[in-house]
Design brief:
The chain has three helices and nine strands. By secondary structure, it is α+β, with helices and mostly antiparallel strands. The mean pLDDT is 92.
Length: 142
Amino acid sequence: MRLIDGRTGIEVIEREQCLDLLRAGDVGRVAVVDSGHPVIFPVNYAMDGETIVFLTAEGTKLDASLRGGPVSFEIDETDRGARTGWSVIVTGWARVVTAPDHVARLQGLGLQPWSEHRKDNWVAIQPERITGRRVVAVEGAG
């Protein structure tokens, strides 16, 4: 049964389906706070259970993760022609993974950076909240 947000008329995607969408994806956007301002970066990622993991080099994403600050992560898909789409947003905490056994397990996920630049630091986003929304085109609209 579809759950519709009464205020917006947008379909709410249940948590398990959000996780399925996250598991099926490979590119998302991570938002961190840098010098008091939100910044967003595209990353390719993998899932380790319900945890989002990605590789990064030194810089803003790594610094934010070392501080253990709050982060958001988002994936989406749209079809402009059909006027439909969905979005999954994860909020939680980022941390750098350094334990050798944990790093070895993450390396087994097969994640490879798309960029040619070296990325040696594993970052894990532990979800605190996972939400999703889907827009379905209204017949006759447009």
